[in-house]
Amino acid sequence: MRFSSHRAWPIVTGMALLTASLAACGRPAAPTSAGPRDLGPVSLSSFKGGKPATVGVPFRSRNELSRLVDAGLEIWYVDQDARRAYGQIGQEHFSAVQRLGAQLRVVQAPGVFNDFDSGYHTYDELKAAMADLAAKHGDKVQMLDIGDGWEKTQGKSDRDVLALRIGKGDPAGKPGVLFCGNHHARELVTPEVVLKIAQMLVDGYGKDADLTNFVDNRDIWLVPMVNPDGHRLASEGRDWRKNTDLSHGGGTSFSGAPNGPGVDLNRNYGFKWGLPGASANVSAPTFRGSGPFSEPETQAIKKLVESRKWAFLMTYHSFSNLILWPWGHTDAPPPDNRLAPIGQKLGTLSGYKPQQSVKLYPTSGDTTDWAFGEHGILAYTTEIGSWGDGFDPPYSKLPKFWKENEPGARLLLQLADNPSHVFGPEVSGATVSAGRLTASAAAEAVEVEVFSGRAGADGTGVKAPVANGQVALSTASFRSANGLLLVHARDAKGNWGPLVSLFNR
Question: Which of 205, 300, 352, 473 is most buried per CB count within 10 Å?
Answer without folding.
Answer: 352
